[in-house]
Amino acid sequence: MNDVLDVGSASAAPGERADGWIHATDLPTGGSERLPVTVINGADGGPVLWVTGGVHGDEATGVAVAQDAAATVDDAVGAGDLAGAVVVVPVVNPAGLRRTERTSYYGGDDPNRYFPDIERETSRPPETQERIDTRLFEAVADSADLLVDCHTAQVGSMPFTIRDRVLYGERRTESAADGLAEDLDRLATALGLPILTEYPAEEYVDQSLQRSTAGAALNTAGVPAVTAELGGHSVVEEDARAAGVAGVVAAAVEFGLLDSTPAGIPEAGAGVPDAPVEYPVRRFVGPRAEEAGLLRHRVAVGEAVEAGDAIADVVTPHGDAVETVESDHDGYVIGRAEGLAVYEGDPVASMAVRDDGELVVPRDRDE
């Protein structure tokens, strides 16, 4: 039998669902910012799966996936089929959602880079967004055994799963990282989407990705966690929403929360394009234009390329050719740059490129 599970103001006894709120921060005009939370507690003991969405306020499909995954699991609780619990926070960045913007007005930069880092030392006092992220992280670390963070990417992008590098160093041994990576790989595979490993370790830390929702859950809390990128932003895309819900349900089945996929939920990965290459890949933003102009894409999303293949053309306002942008790597396109105008140094695509690196890596190059 499970125990009562409390997250924020939501308290669910075994076999129950409870909706509530996680306190984020007080507001200068009175009242408080709150994150909605749903706790669905199975009658029997088992893992606790967290599903989060909306850390970027314009990523609508991720919010819908989290909400609909909760509804699907709630039906399972009613049938007595859930072993463990599911905790859903569909809107991690309500300030950004209200403005349909990626960022929050508690900080002008990415709110998904302020979660705790196990090896970070700083004398700078935390500001509002970091405090909000820390409160959510503490709730995750207190109960989560698994986490799926739901996002979207560029308009027209294909769904995929980002699998973070597992770092070891001062606070985690290589052996412990290896064990964590096994469950991480199980979780990423269960979602049924093409898998991209994150950037190489040095670039990963340079971009503070170990302080993202999934990165902090994985590398600070030691919780297997992945990022599901579910199509384009700003509107709910139905095919990507269905794929996201199916992936979350498949993860619940893989880790024993559910015995089988409920009726009406498609198989994980159904309707999602397969990766067009068989070798392992990692995330890469590029190639980049070296000249300013107007962009014309040559390669479709999901299309494989080799290093040196033309990806896009840059032309003048009169239509004259300025530059042909070539791929730096073997791989495939997962999304294309939005808009027509490009400046020198702008990326023209996001890609999955050949990855010869390890999943488990030292945080510092010297180790």
What does this protein structure show overall?
The chain is an alpha/beta fold and 367 residues long. 24% of the residues lie in helices and 30% in strands. The protein has seven helices and 20 strands. The strands form five sheets. It has an eight-stranded mixed beta sheet, with helices on both faces. Strand 1 and strand 2 form a beta hairpin. The protein is globular and about 65 Å long. 51% of the residues are buried.
Q: Give the structural class.
A: alpha/beta
Annotation field: number of helices: 7
Number of strands: 20
Kindly estimate the percentage of residues that lie in beta strands according to DSSP: 25-35%
Portion of residues within helices = 10-25%
Instruction: Give the low-pLDDT segments.
Output: none
Distance between the termini: 44 Å
Radius of gyration equals 21 Å
Order of helices and strands: EEEEEHEHHEEEHEHHEHEEEEEEEEE
Task: Summarize the main sheet.
Answer: 8 strands, mixed
Mean pLDDT: 95
Q: What would the principal axes of the Cα set say about the shape?
A: globular
| Strand order of the biggest β-sheet | 3-4-6-5-7-11-8-10
Task: Give keywords.
8-stranded mixed sheet, 367 residues, alpha/beta, 4-stranded antiparallel sheet, 30% strand
Put the structure in a nutshell.
The protein is α/β, with parallel strands linked by helices and 367 residues long.
